[in-house]
Design goal:
Blueprint: H1 2-10, E1 14-16, E2 26-32, E3 40-47, E4 50-55, E5 69-70, E6 76-79, E7 84-87, E8 103-109, E9 112-116
Antiparallel strand pairs: 1-9, 2-3, 2-5, 3-4, 4-8, 6-7, 8-9
The chain binds FE2/S2 (inorganic) cluster (FES).
């Protein structure tokens, strides 16, 4: 428990440069750490001018991943395996019964995106 709490306070955000390259209604992937061990792949999305981050691991649980590119209707990240869509701002699924996609807090500052894991 203590280790978990200390971990919360000791983590620094991951900095992603060139925030301006992420245009409205678009999603791009970034990789953090070693994906073979404890690394993660995230999807950065810009909706209504704000940046949001989702884990690319699809909560449908069949091995699909949310993909980069234009967001569906400018707002929804897509997993092409079964075509499920997830609101990039909340992680909630659109019109299907499924768990939410995991989201992370993002702050855009000085042309960079800070992702808090
Ligand atoms: S695994 Fe993503 S929609 Fe089925």
């Amino acid at each position: 428990m203590l280790k978990k709490l200390l971990g919360l306070f000791g983590k620094r955000p991951v900095i992603v440069p060139d925030a301006a390259k992420l245009v409205e209604g678009e999603a791009r992937t970034i990789e953090i750490g070693d994906l073979g061990s404890d690394g993660r792949q995230l999807l950065l999305c810009r909706v209504d001018g704000k940046v949001h981050a989702l884990d690319t691991e699809c909560p449908h649980g069949k091995g699909g991943r949310l993909v980069r590119g234009p967001l569906h209707e400018g707002r929804f990240a897509v997993c092409p395996l079964h075509n499920y869509k997830f609101d990039a701002t909340t992680g909630r699924p659109k019109e299907v019964v499924c768990s939410d996609a995991k989201t992370y807090t993002c702050v855009e500052r000085n042309g960079q995106i800070e992702v808090h894991l």
